[in-house]
Amino acid sequence: MFNLILFGPPGSGKGTQSVNIVRSYHLEHISTGDLLRDEVTRQTPLGVEAKKYMDQGLLVPDEVVIGMISSKIDEKASARGFIFDGFPRTKAQAEALDKLLEFKNTAIHLVLSLEVPEDNLVNRLVNRGTTSGRSDDTEEVIAKRIKEYYAKTEQVASHYNQQGKLERVKGDNTVEDTFKLLSKNIDKYLLPV
């Protein structure tokens, strides 16, 4: 089982590249946002617990999120591997994920970090905001989201860098060229299907 974390600040193209990776390598996509919504909709015990926090506008505790990830991995036990999107966001979450995967006799094999200059990110997101109508794609909000992303995830990048698993990938190319760079790193572990 091959497990990959894809990092990227808002506007880096992480969503697009996740779709490309899933399609080419047949990995299961684990998005914590999707997991939370699914568990809440299905009213699972973890979903009911998560909803209590969400209804109060609070972050769902790491233990609950890790429980959901564990359930998803068990549900897809025959998967070729997983791509983690939006998780882990903190060093504590990275450590919890490592322990969970170790318990399941696997590990994170590769962490790919899309590197895009901040002015490119802002331009991409402002453009997305004008075409999608997303109210959170204003320059002020974007700058805050990018700053928060780097403040939190740099610890996670450092955690995996110390394990020799982090690769920084230039993400300001075309979608196709960026995917080629990502693939070059993934191909060292797993070939496309």
Quick one: biggest sheet?
A: 5 strands, parallel
What distance lies between the first and last C-alpha atoms, to the nearest angstrom? 14 Å
> Proportion of β residues?
5-15%
Tertiary shape? globular
Number of strands: 5
List keywords for this structure.
alpha/beta
Could you describe the 3D structure shown?
This protein is 58% helix and 13% strand. The protein is an alpha/beta fold. Strands 2-3-1-4-5 form a five-stranded parallel β-sheet, with helices on both faces.
What's this, in brief?
This protein is an alpha/beta fold and about 190 residues long. It is built from eight helices and five strands, in the order βαβαααβαβααβα.
Tell me the layout of helices and strands:
Layout: E1 2-7, H1 14-25, E2 28-31, H2 32-42, H3 45-55, H4 62-75, E3 81-85, H5 91-103, E4 110-115, H6 118-132, H7 139-162, E5 166-170, H8 175-186
Parallel strand pairs: 1-3, 1-4, 2-3, 4-5
